[in-house]
Specification:
Layout lengths: L1 H25 L9 H15 L6 H12 L12
Helix pairs in contact: 2-3
């Protein structure tokens, strides 16, 4: 009985450490749209700003202003 409990505790500890490792691994990374993701984000911004999928310079400016409010613009390779 004692041996089964010890094995259960060890397995639980291994699972806990695995998930903590995942949290530590993914915590410092920030999401960054690449490829078509940038166009999708700007299209969403366009729909929000003026109700059409046409991406305008003003959509880029409002997106950038909101983005900068949360993190530095130059923190990754981004268009200026």
């Amino acid at each position: 009985m004692q041996n089964n409990r010890k094995q259960l505790v060890i397995k639980g500890l291994i699972v806990f450490l695995f998930f903590m490792g995942l949290v530590i691994y993914y915590k410092p990374s920030e999401p960054y749209a690449t490829g078509d993701g940038i166009e999708y984000v700007l299209t969403t911004e366009a729909w929000y700003n003026h109700g059409s999928p046409d991406i305008r310079y003003s959509d880029f400016c409002t997106f950038k202003a909101d983005f900068v409010a949360h993190q530095m613009w130059q923190s990754e390779l981004r268009i200026s």
